[in-house]
Fold:
Amino acid sequence: MQIEKKDERTAVIIPAGKIDVTNSNLFKAKLTELYQEGFNDIIIDFTDVNTLDSSGIGKLLVFYKKLKDRGGTLSIIHVKQANIRHLLDMICLDKVINITWD
Structure:
């Protein structure tokens, strides 16, 4: 999982493979680090993500709320996998979190 710090406000996290019950706590830990460092705008690059389950979605929603409460944003970019696109579309997550489909 890579992290790019764009400026004092914005960071990009680039997970690879899956965000599911087996590693969602690691994903949460990385998001927590960025949050605690004061990054208010976090972008998650899904270019290399091929699996997402409910535990991953739960972590996304928790951080969406935390960031929103302090005036920040959570965005997801480069969603390429059809199964992930279908899941996010089915639960209308794009109505809550800014998602860019590729």
User: Anything to note?
Assistant: The two ends are 20 Å apart (CA to CA). The chain is about 35% helix and 35% strand. The chain has one domain: 2-101.
